[in-house]
Amino acid sequence: MRNVQELTWLLLLVLTPRTKGGLSRPGKPTLTSCRSPEKETFTCWWQPASDGGLPTTYALYYRKENSEIMYECPDYFTGGENSCFFNKNNTSIWVNYNITVVATNRLGSTFSDSVDVDVVYIVQPNPPENVSLSVMEDKGWPFLRVAWAPPRKADTRSGWITLIYELRIRSEGENEWETHVAGQQKLFNIFSLRSGGLYLVQVRCKPDHGFWSDWSSPSQIRFPEYFHQEKSAWIVTTAVCAFIFLIITWLLHMNHGSLKHCLLPPVPGPKIKGFDEQLLKKGKSEDIFNALVVSDFPMSWSSSSNSEDLLVELLEVYIPEERENMLGASKDLGGGSFKLESSTSDSDSGRGSCDSRTLLIEKCGRPKEHEDSAEERVEREDWEDARVDTGGRTWPSVFPGLPDRPQRSLSDGLSQVLGPSEGQVCKQIKARSDINIAVSGHKESPARWSVEYVGVQTVVNDDMVILQPWGSREGCTPLHSLQERDYSQVKQVGSDDTLLLLQKVSEGTADGREAGNMSQKSATCMNSTTATGGYVDAAAAFPMTTY
Amino acid sequence: LGRCCGSCSLMYMVAVCSGVPIGDLLERAAQHSDKLYSLSTTLTHDLDSHFPPMGRMIMPRPSACHTSSLQTPGDKEQALQVSESELLSLARSLLQAWADPLVVLSSSANTLPHPAQSKIINKIHELQEHSKNLGDGLNIISGKMDPTAQTISSLPYRGGNDVGQDKLSKLIKFQFLLSCFRRDSHKIDSFLKVLRCRAAKTQPHLC
């Protein structure tokens, strides 16, 4: 059928008269496009070629897919020049239109290439209409609402055509558009616009299966000034920040000194007691060390006797607070607490040096040998044996801990006794001799820790005390539980420097005799110490370790 | 219940007798038909890119499609006069008519002399998948409408089980079948979208 038609056109072409005197048949027109805005009507446009120098008319013929009849365009005017408009009655969908344009002048006709068109494939809607811009407000923050209507011709209500929308916005003076896809909805909210800016908005639409429409004509809106809200917030923030800054600055200024001290603490100066910086600057090292030593304390000893006597200087004379409290309350408990007290101070070297039997025998015992009774002399022989046994191990344990405790207790005890009591007082000064357990390996029983007590009878003058063993005078309240121990009695005041003590031996045990012997010596030590002024400083004790 | 589950399988019965609104079902069906049309459009464009010019001359007219005998509305006026159940019946009939040709296309796609062969094979498989899903969905929807929706016009495909022997005839047959399918899927999509808007009168923002 189609071939027959083409043949007919061909015959027509052949029969067309040829050019005469520069005039010719019209050139071949071209069908440029067909478009349906709403799937109900459509329009086709063509491009004419040369008219051949003669008045030329154009005609559009179409034939529907399932029909042999050829029709001419029903409307050449609605679509404008060189176009053909197909109204609703002439438009079918899902049907191919075979369309041809014929240009005709006096010399003949020229046919365009035919085009097959199905209206459903050429749908391109008109732009959306009634685009409106409005400024809305949400919790004090404005936003732009863009609303529009679908193109008037498009029947979206029945579902015959389904449109989706897209919009774009730009501020005046910018070239870049910002595009938003709105989907099927017909309004869109735009947030975060510049305060006071002038904006242009355009909308376009596309059918579910088709082509994008042109952009709608730009709508314009000036976004309101909402900066005052922002500005006030900024002002408040700035003011608060400035206030805080001022306060911090002021605080820093006020605390300049302490802050400096905190960040850059001063270098600590020398803290050696008695250290004279001026002497150090003069560079006399001997004077410096002399200054560290308590004045002439070690010198007097070294002059009068052997240097090892230094080790025997420490006599512990003190009244523990517990003891004082216990005296009136419970005698048994008092005794117990004493045992506990003495056992805790085991390896005290200051006391140990005084208590050391070897030392006592060698340095203190010898001068008074003639006054000792026969029993004691026998006992000393035993002692000599003990010294041989243990001598090598005695001294290492003497020095390691040379703490301040013996000195403190000595001074405390003396100050208590010699200060306010003045003779009538019946407090007891306990000349206690602790025997270092570590020294004598052959006596391991805790009972060896003999404790001896003497009472102060009178204070003769500032330098001397007369001791009385307690329990022997009715003026003092004795501790009966402690009478099992050995106590010394003042035998006589030998000279300014010595106090002779008599041991009052109740039982003939080795412990008692040893203790008595030692207490005798201890009293001597104490007296000597008090005679020199009574106070022994830690600094004075320090040089002893060098011997 | 008897009417509603008369001709459906057990699976449909569950869906049909449950309370899913028909508007939602049609919305879902329209999404499927939309996808179906989009796939067929890209497929025809893929084939067009390597279609010999001579093929266009030889290719049969669209009136030769095996579904062209089915009377369908030719414009908006006609379409809007057709009842819902009738529109659904048309959509189901068209979909049903493409079950066999799609099998032919799918089985012969691997012999298609085309550079984008594997791409075309995948798309045809996808087409079959969507077509089957949509058919199932339309069966459920038809169960909720009056009996007219149940009637399916028989449109047998008589094109044979192969697409020809030589290169050109294969390409022409493929292109022809796909152009027919494209139009029919557009019809199905249009009918379902009209149905969707009629069912969604309570949601005017959609239509």
UniProtKB/TrEMBL annotation, chain A:
Alphabetized Pfam families for the sequence: EpoR_lig-bind (PF09067)
GO MF annotation: an example: cytokine receptor activity
Signal sequence interval, chain numbering: 1-21
Topology versus the membrane: Single-pass type I membrane protein
Compartments (UniProt record): Membrane
Tagged with keyword Glycosyltransferase: no
GO cellular component, one term: external side of plasma membrane
Keyword rRNA processing: no
Record's compositionally biased regions (Basic and acidic residues): 365-390
Family per record: Belongs to the type I cytokine receptor family. Type 1 subfamily.
PANTHER family: CYTOKINE RECEPTOR (PTHR23037), INTERLEUKIN 5 RECEPTOR SUBUNIT ALPHA (PTHR23037:SF46)
Protein name, per record: Prolactin receptor
Organism lineage: Eukaryota, Metazoa, Chordata, Craniata, Vertebrata
TrEMBL record, chain B:
Pfam families: Hormone_1 (PF00103)
Highest taxon in the source lineage: Eukaryota
Keywords, alphabetical: Disulfide bond, Hormone, Secreted, Signal
Cellular location(s): Secreted
Keyword check for Disulfide bond: yes
Main location: secreted
Family from the record: Belongs to the somatotropin/prolactin family.
Protein name: Prolactin
Natural source organism: Hippocampus comes (Tiger tail seahorse)
